[in-house]
Design goal:
Layout lengths: L6 H15 L3 H4 L1 H7 L1 H9 L1
Helix pairs in contact: 3-4
Length: 47
């Protein structure tokens, strides 16, 4: 079974997981998140 996930949805899930684990996603996987969802990066800084 193959499931397609939009890059923005994946980035959102990764950010939520990092938050739950107490990790700083900017240090751990910031480059990956920027590639997956460059627009949402600015939204996160405002929140």
């Amino acid at each position: 079974m193959r499931v397609e996930v939009k890059p923005r949805e994946l980035a959102k899930a990764i950010r939520k997981a990092c938050s739950s684990l107490g990790l700083d996603e900017r240090d751990e996987i910031g480059e990956l998140l920027a590639e997956l969802d460059p627009v949402n990066e600015k939204e996160d800084e405002e929140a």
